[in-house]
Amino acid sequence: MTRILSYLLVALLVLACSPVYGADSNTVSSTVVTDKSVPTASAPSIVINNNDVCKSAAAVSVQTQVLGIATGITITDENCERIKLARSLYGMGMKVAAVSTLCRDHRVFDAMWMSGTPCPFMGKIGDDAKTSWEKNLDIMPESSEIRIREESQAIAAIIPKPKPKVTKPIKRPSNENNKSVWVKPIGVLLMLLLL
After folding, report:
1. Spatial separation of the C-alpha atoms in residues 104 and 100, rounded to whole Å
2. How far is 85 from 107, CA to CA, in rounded Å?
3. What is the greatest pairwise CA distance in the chain?
4. Which of 87, 148, 179, 181 lies 20 to 30 angstroms, CA to CA, from 163?
5. Are strands 55-63 and 68-76 parallel, antiparallel or unpaired?
6. What's the pTM value of the predicted model, to 2 decimals?
7. Distance (Å, rounded) from C-alpha 114 to C-alpha 167?
8. Helices 95-102 & 78-91, crossing angle to 10 degrees?
């Protein structure tokens, strides 16, 4: 009997450890996650700690349900660079070069011209520089009002103005003879209408 019990125990262990391939039920269960969101795209932080750098930073990011994009750039301030270069040149004793550097800005160029001290031109200053600038309009800064005015004057000098035609006034012929002829029939008609 112990032998039979041992065989039965072995048989139960074999059956309990073997995989069962049958389905216990027809119910299918699954887990649905509804509150899971896409990670947010963060714009990179661009740090410019030095105040001697003529740059500023810009960053932007866009996030959709599927895709996120982030980017950042630095923007160079040319006017700031121009001022720093002029200060450096002036500090080294190069005053004319410092003024020439600032004169690449159309506002400074116009202000210098209007004040009677035109910007230096290829080593020339004063009236010599002004004459040279007038001969080389294409070198002046693009948005300069002086350049626009000088170019329009140069074009006006090239294109000849049409001379106005002088015409003598035409004298109207006097209709005194015809006037008397028309006055009588009209007068007669008016009299007939009034009656």
Report:
1. 7
2. 17
3. 166
4. 148
5. antiparallel
6. 0.50
7. 43
8. 170
State both tokens at 29.
């269960």
Would you place residue 174 in the very low, low, confident or very high pLDDT band (cuts 50, 70, 90)? low
Give dist(CA 45, CA 37) in Å, integer: 24
Q: What's the per-residue H, E or C state across the chain?
A: CHHHHHHHHHHHHHHHHCCCCCCCCCCCCCCCCCCCCCCCCCCCCCCCCCCCCCEEEEEEEEECCCCEEEEEEEEECHHHHHHHHHHHHHHCCCHHHHHHHHCCCHHHHHHHHHCCCCCCECCECCHHHHHHHHHCHHHCCCCCHHHHHHHHHHHHHHCCCCCCCCCCCCCCCCCHHHHHHHHHHHHHHHHHHHC
- List all residues 6 or more positions away from 96 whose beta carbon is below 8 Å from its beta carbon: 120, 125
Selection from 123, 110, 193, 122 nearest residue 149 by Cα: 110
- Structure-block tokens of residue 66: 């599927």
The residue length of the chain stands at 195
According to the model, what pLDDT value does residue 92 have? 92
Which of 43, 46, 45, 47 minimizes the C-alpha distance to 61?
A: 43
